[in-house]
Each structure stands twice: as structure tokens, then as C-alpha cells.
Automatic annotation (TrEMBL):
<dbReference type="InterPro" id="IPR001005">
    <property type="entry name" value="SANT/Myb"/>
</dbReference>
<dbReference type="GO" id="GO:0009555">
    <property type="term" value="P:pollen development"/>
</dbReference>
<feature type="region of interest" description="Disordered">
    <location>
        <begin position="1"/>
        <end position="35"/>
    </location>
</feature>
<dbReference type="InterPro" id="IPR017930">
    <property type="entry name" value="Myb_dom"/>
</dbReference>
<keyword id="KW-0010">Activator</keyword>
<protein>
    <recommendedName>
        <fullName>Transcription factor GAMYB</fullName>
    </recommendedName>
</protein>
<dbReference type="Pfam" id="PF00249">
    <property type="entry name" value="Myb_DNA-binding"/>
</dbReference>
<feature type="domain" description="Myb-like">
    <location>
        <begin position="30"/>
        <end position="82"/>
    </location>
</feature>
<dbReference type="GO" id="GO:0009908">
    <property type="term" value="P:flower development"/>
</dbReference>
<feature type="compositionally biased region" description="Basic and acidic residues">
    <location>
        <begin position="1"/>
        <end position="12"/>
    </location>
</feature>
<dbReference type="GO" id="GO:0005634">
    <property type="term" value="C:nucleus"/>
</dbReference>
<keyword id="KW-0805">Transcription regulation</keyword>
<keyword id="KW-0539">Nucleus</keyword>
<feature type="domain" description="HTH myb-type">
    <location>
        <begin position="30"/>
        <end position="82"/>
    </location>
</feature>
<dbReference type="GO" id="GO:0030154">
    <property type="term" value="P:cell differentiation"/>
</dbReference>
<keyword id="KW-0221">Differentiation</keyword>
<keyword id="KW-0287">Flowering</keyword>
Length: 586
DNA sequence: AAGCGGGCCAACCGCCCTTAA
DNA sequence: ATTAAGGGCGGTTGGCCCGCT
């Protein structure tokens, strides 16, 4: 657009003594700064300046050039108009579709949307949306096309999962993890589709509406350098209707006990009806299966705070004008809770790889694969287990939980209890729930899976035994991980792999087995350089810092005492492939 | 032709977060 | 630990364009 075209005469020469909108007075001389539309000559100066000095330090532009513009103004002008590769012109239908879809998911996160629309700016998208929404509102039309609503309804359901995600020393949980299948689909649906920067802490989950609830949850974590982690748990009183979208769950909802366990409490209570005053019975009487490992008496030492979280109005939370129902929210607004914590402020990283190769996704991917193959092999027709997306979308919240969880439970079979406990250990627990909500599947014969969950910063081992816990009850076992040669891997990883880590456990009961087996894995090891450079922590907390890329191709995994074979990496029985971009090479 | 209003868009504003001193 | 500066982001404003009456 021609800059002169929209130059209002009364602004061209308008000046300001403000430095942008800064409330703070700037040191030094107060230059008279110009406001209003930019002229071509100003653009040229700015372009030249950026060419010479690069982006950033925008306030220096004004100091070091003839440009009498605030730093903010410069940044804005550059970002929205002058920077290269900007796409001009109307949005394409594809872009429009994407905007609508993104908005249905994330609400008014213009910058995030812009990040996913190359060449487009947040301002453009915002303007587009605002005009579009006004138009629709005037016409009394729904904001989202009906098919979009329906489609997102599924995704909505999918997002109604607990986002249990480990980001550096962070874990977050939310309720819908109880539908792992849904979660898997959700994660899968977002594969390669996420490129958020990590907004830590930034808690969100699938477009949920929080309404005056409090929740708690628990999650175990082995000692992970308690010195560096400071957990502050807060119970959030969500007295708002907020969009919680599927951004990276962050560091909420945790607390770490003196024992090193990280706990996360959850006490769900959500409302089905849009009318916030009407509550429906909670699924499983307020209990959600899967909390077995977390309901063993560990009490929270968290500091409970009540606070209101401000979140923007979500897309799918709008009531449809025609029926007043909650679009895409068949089971009603769930609740959430957040425990704030963590001092660490991880660098911004692309979520693309983090998410795609994240702990949860990997877990779910693996288990889903296992489940799929199992189902395929057995041709078992369990309608309740065969929960499709559509079914999920149409099911009530209760059914959603039941079917989803049951299926997932089955997916873990034949090692139902152990695998489930593994899952339980790794996934957020739900207070009071139990795997016994569903009958355990029949155990089959031996073998085990080593699931290697990892992304750039995290690595976690979990052994999933495809054998009944009865086979192991009363036995001691140990896990060794060793490696032959390590090639040119980093020192840290070499040491990690070449040093057998043995963790001995005694299995005394099924429940004990459920717990202990999930604790398999290398202990936290202080790195050869420094904790910052290298640290490995035990399950749910292992992380490779920096770019250490361990090679596991020659590693041997040995579980002793349980009559199981040892496996080398390449002979690992089941789906043990590491996710791409996980920072670890096979 | 003039007036009006909606659409579109650039720019500003205010708040917030991060970082460095 | 505190404070100031830099910068990001979402909301809002206001001017021009354009079609309609």
C-alpha cells in the first residue's frame, strides 16, 4: 500500500515527545518523535539501518539514524511492512481456512497464528479476523463454519486430554489424559503442525472452560536435582471462561516433595451445562481411572493459592447463536488446575521437535501402535474400545472417559497392570481413580518393551512388560544399561552409556510391581562437566542437555532376575524406535 | 454529486515479560 | 533484589476507500 495514501494530513506532521508507549522516561535528551503513517523516505532509512545493523535494538534506530521514530514504531513498521518475504494481498482461501481453524483452537493468539502463516503478520490476521467476525456477528452467523465446529469438536475432545509434557524440568498435567486414545489422536493430529515457541510458563489445554473449580493431581517423579527445582504449587481458581488451547503445557501443577516425588494434584469437577450453576455428576464419581500409583498416601505439600487466570475468550467457547449450546463442547466445560512452579526459565525452543518427539506423544505413539497391532491380530471386536474420533466427539464426557480409557487400557495389554502402571506413573494421575475400573486383560507370555521416550531435552526409559505381574511378583530384578563403543558421541553420553546403571527392585506385590517397574531406568547422574552441561535424571526427568546425542545402537539393556532376555537396541522386540528429532541417534 | 456507513488497514496504546545493569 | 530498558503482544483507534442510497 502506498504509504502516502493513508497519511492523514493532521498526522503527517504530528510529533510526539513520547518514546513509544513507554511509561518510563528515557534517559537523556528528549527527541521529538514523529507519529502517524510512515513516509517512503522513513522506510528507506529504516531499511537501510536494518541492513546495516540487523534487527533488534530498535530504540537505537532513533539514536543512530535520522529517523525520528520510536523504537516500537520502527519495530512495528519493519515487522509489518518492510521485512522481506512479507506476503501482501488478500488471504488465500487456504490461509483463511487455516486462520479460522487456528482461531478455533487458540483464540486471539495472533502472533502464534502469524508464526504459522509464513509471510503474514499478526496485525494482518487480527484485522482480518476482526472484520470477519464483525461481519458474521452482524449477519447473526456462527463464527465458525458448521463443519469447522464439528471438526473442531473432535479436536476439542482430543484436546480434552491431560497435557502431560515434560519440558526440561517441567511437567504439566491436565485432566483429559484420562482418554489416552483421544490424546494420541490429538497429538497425532498436531504432528508437524506445531511450531510454537515455548511459552513457559504458559499453561493451556484444549479450549477448556474453567469455572470456579479447584483441582489437584499427583504425579511422581524421581529425584531430579531438587536443588535446581523449586516447585510452587498453586491451586487455581478459574473463575473465568477461558480458552485453554493446546499450546505446550508448561510447568504447572507440580510440586516436589522432600522425597523427590513430584506431585500433581487433580480433583476434577466440571460442568456439563453451559449454565455455570448447574453441575453434572463427575465421571467416575469424580474419580478418574489411572491414579493408582498416585493414590498411595503421598500428600501434597504444595502451597495452595487461589488466583484467577486471565485467558482470552476461546473460539469454541462461544455460544452458537442459534441454539445456545457450547460449540464443540459436548461434554461441557472441563476444569483445570494449575500448579505453578519452577524457577527455571528454559530457552525458547521450537515446539515442533519437542512436541513431536515429546514424552507423551512417544508414549502414546508406541502404545497406540502396540494396541493397533494387537487389535489387528486378535480381531477383537470391542465396540467400546474401538473409539473413533467421531465417537469420541459424540460421546458424553463420561463415555468419553470410559471408552477412551478402556481402550487405552487394552492397548497396554497384555501387560495391563504393569503397563498401565507405567503409564500411570508417567501420566498424570487422577485422584481416587483406579485401573480396576476396567478388568485387566489377559496376560501373555514374556518379553518386554523398552520405551525410550525422548525429545531434545528429555529422555525417559520405561519398561513395559508384556507379562503378567504375577510372573514377577516376589522377585528381585535389576536393570542394566550398558554400551560397547560409543563412536564419537559426546563424552557425557558415552559415560552414560558405558556406565552400567543398575537399579534393584524387589517386587513383592502386584501393586508394588506396578510401581517399581516404572522406576526402572538409570538414576540421575551428575555429568562430567557440570549439571548444566550434562545431567541425566531418572524416569520422567532424564534429560540430555545441550546437544548430546547418545547412540544406543550398541547398547544392551538387561533386566536381570525376571527371566527376561537382554536386548540390544536393534533387537528390541517392539516399537522402540526413537522419535525423530529427539536429539538421540540410534 | 453528496452523504453515509462499512470494510480495510496502519499505527498507536497499554500491558506485560524478559533481560541486563 | 530491584529497577530500567527493550521488546512482544493484543486491543483499539482513526483515516481512507468504496459502494450504496
Amino acid at each position: 500500500m502506498n504509504d502516502n495514501k493513508m497519511v492523514p494530513k493532521d498526522q503527517v506532521d504530528s510529533i510526539s515527545t513520547e518514546e513509544g508507549s513507554s511509561r518510563r522516561s528515557l534517559s537523556g535528551d528528549r527527541k521529538v518523535l514523529k507519529k502517524g503513517p510512515w513516509t517512503p523516505s522513513e522506510d528507506a532509512i529504516l531499511v537501510e539501518y536494518v541492513k546495516k545493523h540487523g534487527e533488534g535494538n530498535w530504540n537505537a534506530v532513533q539514536r543512530n539514524s535520522m529517523l525520528l521514530r520510536s523504537g516500537k514504531s520502527c519495530r512495528l513498521r519493519w515487522a509489518n511492512h518492510l521485512r522481506p518475504n512479507l506476503k501482501k494481498g488478500a488471504f488465500t482461501p487456504e490461509e483463511e481456512k487455516m486462520i479460522i481453524k487456528m482461531h478455533s483452537r487458540m483464540g486471539n493468539k495472533w502472533a502464534q497464528m502469524a508464526a504459522r502463516l509464513p509471510g503474514r503478520t499478526d496485525n494482518e490476521i487480527k484485522n482480518y479476523w476482526n472484520t470477519r467476525i464483525k461481519k458474521l456477528q452482524r449477519a447473526g452467523l456462527p463464527i465458525y463454519p458448521s463443519n469447522m465446529c464439528f471438526q473442531d469438536s473432535d479436536e476439542y475432545q482430543q484436546r480434552r486430554i491431560v497435557n502431560c509434557f515434560v519440558q526440561q524440568n517441567e511437567i504439566l498435567q491436565s485432566r483429559d489424559l484420562n482418554n489416552p486414545d483421544v490424546m494420541f489422536d490429538y497429538l497425532n493430529s498436531n504432528r508437524g503442525d506445531l511450531s510454537y515457541s515455548l511459552p513457559c510458563p504458559d499453561f493451556s489445554m484444549g479450549s477448556m472452560i474453567c469455572q470456579g473449580y479447584e483441582s489437584q493431581g499427583y504425579m511422581y517423579m524421581n529425584p531430579v536435582d531438587p536443588v535446581k527445582q523449586h516447585w510452587v504449587s498453586e491451586t487455581v481458581d478459574c473463575g473465568y471462561h477461558g480458552t485453554i488451547y493446546n499450546e505446550l503445557p508448561s510447568t504447572d501443577q507440580f510440586q516436589i516433595e522432600s522425597s523427590g516425588k513430584i506431585q500433581l494434584t487433580f480433583d476434577l469437577d466440571y460442568q456439563h451445562d453451559p449454565d455455570p450453576t448447574i453441575k453434572i455428576p463427575e465421571p467416575f464419581g469424580g474419580e478418574i481411572p489411572g491414579s493408582q500409583a498416585f493414590s498411595n498416601g503421598n500428600s501434597s505439600a504444595s502451597r495452595s493459592l487461589s488466583r484467577t487466570v486471565k485467558l482470552e475468550l476461546p473460539s469454541l467457547q462461544y455460544r452458537e447463536p442459534n441454539d445456545g449450546s457450547w460449540s464443540g463442547f459436548p461434554s461441557g466445560p472441563p476444569t483445570a488446575v494449575v500448579d505453578k512452579h519452577f524457577e527455571s526459565s528454559p530457552a525458547t525452543v521450537s515446539l515442533q521437535s519437542e512436541w513431536n518427539s515429546g514424552l507423551l506423544e512417544t508414549l502414546l505413539h508406541e502404545t497406540h501402535a502396540l494396541g493397533s497391532s494387537k487389535r489387528h491380530a486378535s480381531e477383537k471386536s470391542d465396540s467400546s474400545a474401538a473409539t473413533t474420533n467421531e465417537e469420541v466427539g459424540e460421546s458424553s464426557g463420561l463415555n468419553l472417559y470410559k471408552t477412551g480409557w478402556k481402550e487405552y487400557y487394552d492397548l497396554f495389554s497384555p501387560s495391563s497392570s504393569s503397563a498401565a502402571s507405567t503409564f500411570n506413573e508417567c501420566m498424570p494421575p487422577v485422584v481416587g481413580g483406579s485401573f480396576h475400573e476396567f478388568p485387566p486383560s489377559k496376560a501373555t507370555s514374556g518379553g518386554y518393551n523398552l520405551l525410550f521416550f525422548s525429545h531434545h531435552l528429555f529422555t525417559n526409559f520405561f519398561l513395559l512388560y508384556s507379562a503378567s505381574h504375577e510372573n514377577f511378583a516376589g522377585k528381585n530384578y535389576s536393570l542394566s544399561i550398558s554400551a560397547g563403543s560409543h563412536g564419537d558421541n559426546s563424552l557425557a553420553v558415552a559415560e552414560y552409556l558405558s556406565t552400567p546403571k543398575v537399579e534393584e527392585k524387589h517386587i513383592s506385590s502386584s501393586s508394588d510391581f506396578s510401581r517399581t517397574c516404572t522406576l526402572l531406568g538409570p538414576r540421575w547422574i551428575e555429568g562430567p562437566q557440570s549439571t548444566k552441561d550434562y545431567s541425566l535424571t531418572s524416569p520422567l526427568g532424564q534429560h540430555f542437555c545441550n546437544d548430546h546425542k547418545p547412540s544406543l545402537s550398541e547398547a544392551t539393556f538387561l533386566v536381570q532376575g525376571l527371566g527376561l532376555e537382554s536386548y540390544t537396541w536393534d533387537k528390541m522386540p517392539h516399537a522402540c524406535q526413537m522419535p525423530e528429532n529427539c536429539g538421540i541417534s540410534e
